[in-house]
Amino acid sequence: MSGTTSAMVRFSDVTKTFVGDNGPFNAVDGVTLDITRGEIFGVIGYSGAGKSTLVRLINALELTSGGTIEVDGRSITGLPEGALREVRAGIGMIFQQFNLLSSRSIAGNISYPLEVARWPKAKRKARVAELLDFVGISDKAKQRPSQLSGGQKQRVGIARALATNPGILLADEATSALDPETTQDVLALLKKVNAELGITVVVITHEMDVVKTICDRVAVMERGKVVELGDVYSVFANPRHPATRRFVEATIKDRPSKDALERLRRRHPHHLITVSVHEDGTSGGRITDVLSANSVQGSIIFGGISEVTERPFGSLTWELVGTPADIARSIETLKGYTRVVDLGTAEHPLADPDAYAPGTETDRPDAQSPSAPLPLDRLAAENAAQIGGIDPGNPNPLGGFRKGNR
Ligand SMILES: Nc1ncnc2c1ncn2[C@@H]1O[C@H](COP(=O)(O)OP(=O)(O)OP(=O)(O)O)[C@@H](O)[C@H]1O
Ligand SMILES: [Mg+2]
Q1: How far, in Å, from the CA of 176 to the mean position of ligand 2?
Q2: Other CB atoms closer than 10 Å to residue 241's CB: what's the count?
Q3: Looking at the chain, which residues constitute the CATH 3.40.50.300 domain(s)?
Q4: Phi then psi for 233, rounded to 5 degrees?
Q5: What's the pTM?
Q6: Which residue, judged by its Cα, is nearest atom 27 of ligand 1?
Q7: Could you tell me which residue ranges the ABC transporter domain spans (predicted)?
Q8: Which residue's alpha carbon is at the smallest distance from atom 8 of ligand 1?
Q9: How far, in Å, is the centroid of ligand 1 from the Cα of 47?
Q10: What is the CATH number of domain 7-249+369-388?
């Protein structure tokens, strides 16, 4: 990797057209974006949004129908297959289903791309030991994939993807098959890959929780287009697109849903407001000060503050008791500091325009049918291409393929 430009990956008006049941459609539609060298970049969207297609364009498992892609300062659009193999060798990839070779030991799996790249045996052995140690499974070297837990298998996947020192790691739903705790462990490992090895990581996910935990920036995709792009904290604090709002609210759960608000109103008939709490905005203490300065009594009845990219984020719903004038003045003052949603009283209720309503994710009007699973033979060929930098069309990945040592 040359390390000359700040963009590790640059999409310029990229389109990928497939022919579906209803004719041609753009799975990726006019995408322009830069993935910065050394960042953890998230791509989030519902099923069928085009996330996997977008990342598969980076390592040329899919070829663009329009526009150009640069990887590490070099245009990969229109490169011959031989040159694409070189590009792929600088890009590691991990998968939801791990895609390990069941007949090989753990060490054998990690060694595989090194064998393909013709590393000498001693160098391979040392590298495998180093990688096993890095991902924390040195004691599993001789075991088979079937003897490992999902989290351990993904560690093997990561070690294998890192074997030949790539500059980019693509993670397509890498934690989607894991339980929440194991997900956190694997995300911590991806963070370590980024921080200690300086590898640019591209994380594809449909879970905002993943984005919130490790990504620096995020692109939200819908119907092949990037509908929102920004640093993760700002996207959480100020989601503009409806799809982004749904993702954020389904994750943060700091605001009462429509139903929860109805229940709250029964128990708390006075004036309700929801106040956003950000690290640079209103703290709980400041809210209390504003209320008492206006002779309003307030109590917290709903809410939560969690971390987004290691910074505090959330909101609190308060019940306010006081004269309408005092309450109105308090709300005006608070609006000078932060976002305030006025929910009114039980008698004169106001709706939260962004309230999360469970079920809307599946009922959403723009829902697309889930992507069809890839045929097994194609998956196998791609797996081989990924782990060995081999032509996806080559059915015999270990035979006859030459690549210099890296
Ligand atoms: N090789 C292909 N041929 C035809 N259509 C395809 C092909 N690959 C993907 N698609 C279609 O392109 C659209 C985007 O698919 P893609 O796999 O990129 O979505 P995704 O966002 O990764 O979805 P998921 O979250 O389900 O993985 C879908 O409608 C899918 O069916
Ligand atoms: Mg996908």
Answers
A1: 11
A2: 14
A3: 7-249+369-388
A4: -65, -45
A5: 0.81
A6: 47
A7: 9-248
A8: 53
A9: 8
A10: 3.40.50.300
